[in-house]
Amino acid sequence: MTITTTPPRTRSPWSGVASAAESERWLAVAQSVADELAKDAVARDRANTPPVEQLALLRESGLANLLVPAQAGGHGGHWETAFGVARVLARADASIAQILGYHYLNQACVVFYGTDPARQAEWLRRSAEGSWVWSDSFNPVSPDLAFTADGDGYRLSGVKRFATGASVADVIIAGAVAEGGALDGRLVVFAIEGDRPGIEHPGDWDNVGYRASASGSVRYTDVAVSPDDIIGVDEDEPFSSVVTPGVQLLFGNIYLGIAEGALAQARELTRARPGSWFLSGVDRYSDDPVTHRLFGELVARTVAVEALADRLNRRYDEAVALGAATTSDDRAALEIAVAQLKVIATEVGLDVSSRVFEATGASSTRAAVGLDRHWRDIRTHSLHDPVDYKKIEVGAHYLNGTIQPVSLYT
């Protein structure tokens, strides 16, 4: 008789799944924050305003500490709740939703890459005490950073583009291959405050969408990095790389939230729209069967994406609970499932945020209305990594069982 045992669950502070009470509490908080963001979202988008006050709102609401375990001073929430919170915020302001979602994943790097339980607990405790918002400058397509030994520590130089939230956040996560020192040749992951001497934020973010996300560059010039700043080393093991499906799952939820936000605003505009098309045979656009057909199609497709996202949000809690017991097969199965969501959320989000104008009419294209913001946001962010390669990822696995190489995109 073969006796099988369950591998010990180590390194992960997360276990179980979200209760109904947890979800209800934090989604209500998220809705309150979203309502506040919505008051001036259009104006902030047009002004390309750095989201300083909006990050303060995330701290004050408790959302910044949602995933920090209770024993470390946080709220002990689950990933299912966190992804749901990001989705709620994305309906009102995708830029702030992105910053918060990245915060959760960057903060979690102390778990994914940190192997010392005491150090992990200390990072989380300090983060909770300060209600830190975490950002990153991990963009793999930017030139690599120079990370050169200097005594017991290192000196960091170089530029990273698309560092969402870095100019306004408390902490920046980054990674670089060490040159010299005790960690020579290894990919080191570290965290430093965003205003440390030698760090500059050029303020060069002026894109068509995501305008309030502070996604500009970070320039490092001879920045001191001490051993205390180092979270860990990328050991190329399955658990640490689970962070990447988490990033892609966040994208899927935000694209879904953008579609929901576009539909909600289009519904209000359509119901308030006077008159009707002269061939429709009805008195108002909201009674036109053509309008009903359009909304019926867009709503049904959006709800289908919601069902898949909800399922995967809970599955991610199950995945991270495995901790160091995570296998390559566990990680691969999660990657493929999330890639499926990424494909459909991207396509539905782009389609919904564009086609709602067919119901709302020419008057809804006025800049003051801001309906275009939903499409501009998803069009900008959906170019983060080509969705065609996600389709290839899913198709190759379906046909041949192929798994793409592990990377910061897969």
TrEMBL record:
Residues 28-130 form the Acyl-CoA dehydrogenase/oxidase N-terminal domain. This is Dibenzothiophene monooxygenase. It comes from the Bacteria. GO terms for biological process: L-leucine catabolic process. Belongs to the DszC flavin monooxygenase family. Its main location: cytoplasm. Keywords: Flavoprotein, FMN, Monooxygenase, Nucleotide-binding, Oxidoreductase.
